[in-house]
Design brief:
304 residues; alpha/beta; Rossmann fold; GMP Synthetase, Chain A, domain 3; five-stranded parallel β-sheet; four-stranded mixed β-sheet; binds xanthosine-5'-monophosphate; GMP biosynthesis; Rossmann-like_a/b/a_fold; nucleotide-binding
Length: 304
């Protein structure tokens, strides 16, 4: 387990050494990038410029929440939805999606960095991201998904030796709000890897709404390590007296220590029925809701 008392000053020193000029950080509002932002702010102060890119692939209300949490830190918010959807058009392979999102991310950051005269990118990559990318399991977008030509002088990853629970410990020691310390992981490619096949605005809207319901029903009451909705594809259903070819939504809720392995949660039937009723009842294009029982392995936590 990480020794926070030594880790924090050491990583601040490391950031100071690596960042000679201005640095930007990709702030997503998750615990990883938030911890990095605070460490970097302590290391280089106003030479740090946190940037939040609204990819259009974020959870419901996320952009507003981040605006409110980090306004003090000179946060720049970039609306790049159209660029992400354009980059994902026609792409249905999961790894290609990660690359498309990763490349678009880095290009947008490069442009911002140029404008801000920043030559260093700070990233919240953690140990499991690195291991799974190196092992070829999934190219996490902030590691293997990077394009090969990077125009930053350096990329600094202060927490890339930590597991998620260690990052949370550091977050508490840094006095980050509880809401951030306990926040579930959310993948860098966002909702793009929670809709199977090609990303469309319609699928993203469906998964965003369904996901909000799943979180409302499960996060507070069952404290899952991670829970979310995914759109699997289309199937036949009946709504009113009409046959409908509508979306199939999967609900995932897992327990885990570090995301390397996971077990699906044994949720009460009544809770699952309520989630099904809320999703099919409030999203007209959804005809079927399923619960994923699979542990990791053989499944992964995300569907793609
Ligand atoms: P998997 O699906 O690999 O997920 O079992 C393990 C943890 O990693 C997250 N995840 C990602 N995070 N970029 C990320 O930053 C990605 O491409 C990515 N894919 C999965 C997943 O949400 C879980 O917490």
């Amino acid at each position: 387990m990480v020794k926070v008392d030594t880790f924090i000053p050491k990583s601040i020193e490391y950031i100071k050494r690596e960042c000679t000029g201005r640095a930007i950080i990709a702030l997503s509002g998750g615990v990883d990038s938030s911890v990095c932002a605070v460490l970097a702010y302590r290391a280089i102060g106003d030479n740090l410029i946190p940037i939040y890119i609204d990819t259009g692939l974020m959870r419901k209300g996320e952009t507003e929440r981040i605006k409110n949490t980090f306004l003090d830190m000179n946060l720049q918010i970039i609306d790049a939805k159209d660029r992400f959807f354009a980059a994902l058009k026609g792409v249905d392979d999961p790894e290609e999606k990660r690359k498309a999102v990763g490349e678009t991310f880095i290009r947008v950051f490069e442009e911002e960095a140029k404008e801000l005269d920043a030559d260093t990118l700070i990233q919240g990559t953690i140990y499991p991201d690195r291991i799974e990318s190196e092992g070829g399991i999934k190219s996490h977008h902030n590691v293997g998904g990077l394009p090969s030509r990077i125009s930053f002088k350096s990329i600094v990853e202060p927490i890339d030796d930590l597991y998620k629970d260690e990052v949370r410990e550091v977050a508490r020691a840094l006095d980050l709000p509880e809401e951030i310390c306990d926040k579930m992981p959310f993948p860098g490619p966002g909702l793009a890897v929670r809709v199977l096949g090609e990303v469309t605005e319609e699928k993203i809207e469906v998964v965003r709404e369904a996901n909000a319901i799943v979180e409302e029903e499960l996060v507070e009451s069952y404290h899952p390590w991670q829970t979310f909705a995914a759109v699997l594809g289309k199937g036949t259903g009946v709504k009113g007296d009409q046959r409908v070819h509508g979306w199939i939504v999967a609900v995932r809720a897992v327990g885990s220590r570090d995301g390397m392995t996971a077990e699906s949660l044994e949720l009460p039937w009544s809770v699952l029925k309520k989630i099904e009723a809320r999703i099919s009842g409030s999203i007209p294009s959804v005809v079927r809701v399923v619960y994923d029982l699979s542990p990791k392995p053989p499944a992964t936590i995300e569907f793609e």
